[in-house]
Fold this sequence. Notes:
By secondary structure, the protein is mainly beta. The chain is built from no helices and 6 strands. The protein has a domain of 49 residues. It is globular.
Amino acid sequence: xxxxxxxxxxxxxxxxxxxxxxxxxxxxxxxxxxxxxxxxxxxxxxxxxxxxxxxxxxxxxxxxxxxxxxx
Length: 71
């Protein structure tokens, strides 16, 4: 049986923007821990504390971290 010790996952998504939106709401969660970076800038870490029956979700406005073109 293989044990997962110090296991990490990295998720990335590239996209293009013709213009930067006024607001870009983003919802994120994790079962243990996450660090959110956008365009090389640290945004936040989490997840928010909560109970398993109501899974905690952090909401962040990504607009200040976005730029025109490739993100």
